[in-house]
Amino acid sequence: MIKPFSLLLVLLLPGFSQANAQDTIGFENFALPLDTFLYQADPPGTFVSGAVVLPNFFDPTYGFWSGWSLSSMRDTLTPGYGNSFSVISGEGANHSDHYAVTYCSPSCTVRLGASAAGTVILGFYLNNTTYTYLSMRDGDAFAKRFGGETGTDPDFLSVTVHLYRDGELLMDSLVVYLADFRADDAAEDRLLHEWTYTDLSALGGADSILFTMQSSDVGIYGINTPTYFALDNVVVSTPVSARHQNSNIPLSLFPNPARDWITLPSGVGTNPSYRIYDLSGREYTSGSTKLAGSKLDVHALPAGFYLLKIESAFDHWTGKFIIL
Q1: Nearest to residue 221, comparing CAs of 110, 72, 312, 105?
Q2: 79 contact partners, CB below 8 Å, separation of at least 6
Q3: For 259-274, what is each residue's pLDDT tens digit?
């Protein structure tokens, strides 16, 4: 019997810590309608969410893409390449609508933008796509069913994470298993089907990441298993010394209490990103807005007390508001 599993990691470096402020970057700022995807970056070459940059290549002649795409697809049942943009959990990490999908062939990268100096990537959430998960579970025209006919084949699919720091590729790495059928007892076979956090802090963080994939199912043309996986909620850390001295600024919101909307006050810069939390720390929504003075739609929030966090390149503001 195949069981879900917590992430398996191979760590090869001692721990690391520093005074820092952490942010979790999802991909809600693209505001994709549910059950859609985006595989052509505009402007060409990258998808950008906060400090995180996802390279993208798109060939309009053949409709071919590689690198990263963005998705809000929820199809967990349809097998095959035609459903290559869905995640097997049917939603993003922490129940969000959006996430990223990579076609990692033979490798793919995540990096920080040029304006994110001093920021490091501390971790991220990974999951299997529906296409890859069902291919491993059931087999298809190109790839075998993991475990084979007897269920005892020692199959695996893994992602090796290589770190770049200050532009240099580090020798140390970690390995994430998206599937692991190598145990002697077939009851211990594992297929990842939920979002699971990969912690890079023991490696000291990175300014960019190189992913490579390995599989036990290899043919004359390389890996037979679909080399796709999903990524969400990238955790980045900015050293406190790198932040503006006025980085924690109180925020006055109106109307407060609110029912349907609140307005961003002046002074928060252009293109600020925002996140809304309840008082227990649960994140309800996030995104970005074009200008101060924009109205944020909060009609879907349950009645209660909330925190609004707004961030620009150097500063962040925090305000409290009430939903009636």
Answers
A1: 105
A2: 130, 131, 134, 135, 138, 140
A3: 888 887 666 555 667 7
The HSE-up count of residue 215 (CA atoms within 13 Å, CB side) is: 24
Alpha-carbon span 300 to 255, nearest angstrom: 16
CATH class of 244-323: mainly beta
pLDDT in tens, 121-147: 989 999 999 999 999 999 999 999 999
Cα angle 266, 268, 272; round to 5: 125
Calpha distance 128→254 (Å, rounded): 42
Nearest-angstrom CA–CA distance, 81 and 131: 6
Domain ranges of the chain: 20-241, 244-323
Quote the CA–CA distance of 4 and 104 in Å, as a whole number. 23
Phi, psi of 133 (to 5 degrees): -60, -50
Chain position carrying tokens 């002046």: 266
Return all residues near 84 (Cβ < 8 A) that are at least 6 apart.
Answer: 101, 103, 129, 131, 226, 228
Q: 165 and 173 in contact (C-beta within 8 Å)?
A: no
Cis peptide before 43 (omega within 30 of 0): yes
In contact, 106 and 214? CB cutoff 8 Å: no
CATH 1.25.40.20 fits 20-241, yes or no: no
CA 212 to chain centroid: 16
